[in-house]
Write a structure and sequence with these properties.
eight-stranded parallel β-sheet, mainly beta, 323 residues
């Protein structure tokens, strides 16, 4: 994409999906189950080997907004509500040739959301997955990959905002609630390894004069709950959140002004049963800035921080409990 002089480029992906499976079921039928599956992929701007250039003044904006719900409910069968792999990316810059360059002044902004975006960089709602059954097994699962600006480790693209004044911002906010409930059998709620990064695996050049900002924000808000009466209950969630991340360790940041890299994560897992065993595991990681060398021209500031609120609770009346 080439804009010879002045102009703006914006890519927006919006998806809101609902999957519902309801079944009374027959206890004698082996496959009489209820299954609801969400598989969502949204990319605001997807450039695999193609550059974007604005010759004069302008902005480049990529946004992906995803939300949805999956519900599986049955009486005499298994119930499974799966998110599959949910992928939300403001920018997907697939290799070293996927550069973005602004010639004079202008900013690059990427935003990716799973859930509903609220005020002040928060989520007002999460993607929901619910599975309930009386006589079968209940399970919910999903992997949630979210990046405001996503590059390629070892083949990093170069993002150059306007040298006369330009910011680079990547924000990723993702949240999901998984609830599984069974009476006569096992119940599991599983959030597979999910990476939420504001900016990942790209080289960043902000404005070279004046006061400019390069900012990466990652926010995760996840809950997994499994309950059973007569069976085992197992809940697990593995979530990594980053502000500005270079997995190769060779990322570069160059700007006049400030650099902000912030990661916030809330990760809660509960498992509860009456007669079976209960297990709850929450694996949580939040890193503000990783793998970048930073050069600030003149006066400026650098702030990087990560905060985690992680909890796992397992309870059983008659069986073992571990968390």
């Amino acid at each position: 994409v080439v804009v010879g002089n002045n102009g703006n480029l914006q890519g927006l992906s919006t998806l809101n999906a609902t999957a519902t499976a309801t079944n009374v079921g027959d206890v004698t039928a082996a496959n009489d189950n209820a299954t609801a599956v969400l598989g969502l992929t949204g990319k605001g701007i997807d450039q695999a080997g193609n550059a974007i250039t604005i010759g004069g003044t302008g902005n480049v904006i990529g946004q992906s907004l995803l939300n949805g719900s999956g519900t599986a409910q049955t009486t005499n069968g298994d119930a499974n509500a799966s998110g599959g792999t949910v992928t939300s990316q403001g920018f997907n810059l697939g290799n070293a040739s996927s550069d973005i360059t602004i010639g004079r002044s202008g900013s690059i902004t990427g935003l990716a959301v799973v859930g509903t975006l609220g005020a002040n960089n928060t989520l007002s709602d999460q993607l929901d997955l619910t599975a309930t059954t009386t006589n079968g097994t209940a399970s919910t699962d999903g992997i949630f990959t979210t990046a405001g600006i996503q590059g390629s480790s070892g083949a990093e693209a170069n993002l150059t905002a306007g040298p006369n004044g330009g910011n680079i911002s990547g924000s990723a906010l993702a949240g999901a609630t998984l609830v599984s409930s069974a009476v006569g059998n096992t119940s599991t709620a599983t959030i597979g390894t999910s990476d939420i990064n504001g900016i990942q695996d790209v080289n960043l050049v902000g404005g070279q004069v004046g006061t400019n900002t390069i900012s990466g924000l990652g926010v995760g808000q996840f809950n997994a709950a499994a309950t059973s009466v007569n069976g085992a209950a197992t809940g697990s969630s593995d979530v990594n959140v980053g502000g500005i991340i270079s997995n190769s360790g060779t990322g570069t940041i160059n700007t006049a002004g400030s650099v902000n890299a912030i990661a916030r994560l809330s990760n809660t897992v509960t498992a509860s049963t009456v007669a079976g065993s209960a297990s709850a595991v929450a694996s949580s990681d939040a890193v503000g800035l990783k793998g970048y060398s930073v050069n600030i021209i003149g006066s400026g500031s650098l702030f990087a921080g990560g905060s985690v609120n992680s909890s796992s609770t397992a309870t059983s009346v008659a069986g073992a409990a571990s968390a």
